[in-house]
Amino acid sequence: MKFNFPAVTFVRENTAAAQFQHVHSECHEVAFELLENRVTAADLEMMDLLHSSESYFRIRMAEMGPEYLRVLMDTVMQKNLTRGYYGECRCACMVVPGFGFVPEMGCPVHDGEE
Ligand SMILES: [Zn+2]
What is the pTM (predicted TM-score) of this model? Predict the structure, then answer.
């Protein structure tokens, strides 16, 4: 799994359950800022939430290994692909275990995506 943020020191100190508490508190901060109509502040808290979520998965990766996270990601992507959450197409776009989502070259919906 590619992380966007550097590892924080809590990754070595927190249990996954303790890190989840932090993720949960970030959710409340986003909700509070949105209720106050402070969209930029809410966006900052959302970015904090992403960072905190990545820290959760760094802790789980240390416990379970990187392959475990790849399987989780592939499982979620396969589920969402089946549900059409990535858009409907009649191409051979698929989730390849270990590689993630692989769009077919020329797919009008998925080719050229990051
Ligand atoms: Zn496609």
Answer: 0.86
Provide the pLDDT for residue 39. 98
Cα of 103 from ligand 1 centre, angstroms: 6
Which residues place a Cβ less than 5 A from the ion ligand 1? 89, 91, 93, 107, 109-110
Task: Provide, for the chain, the percentages of residues in helix, strand and coil under a 3-state DSSP scheme, each rounded to the nearest 5.
Answer: 60, 5, 35
Q: Give the confidence band of 23 by pLDDT, cuts at 50, 70, 90.
A: very high
Which DSSP state fits 114? -
Measure 113 CA to ligand 1 centroid, in angstroms: 10
Could you tell me the distance, in angstroms and rounded to a whole number, from the CA of residue 15 to the centre of ligand 1?
Answer: 39
Phi and psi based region of residue 107 (left: phi greater than 0; alpha: psi -120 to 50; beta: remaining): beta
3-state secondary structure of 4: coil
CA of 28 to the centre of ligand 1 (A): 36
> pLDDT value at position 98?
85
Using CB atoms within 10 Å of the CB of residue 46, give its burial: 0 to 12 exposed, 13 to 18 middle, 19+ buried: middle
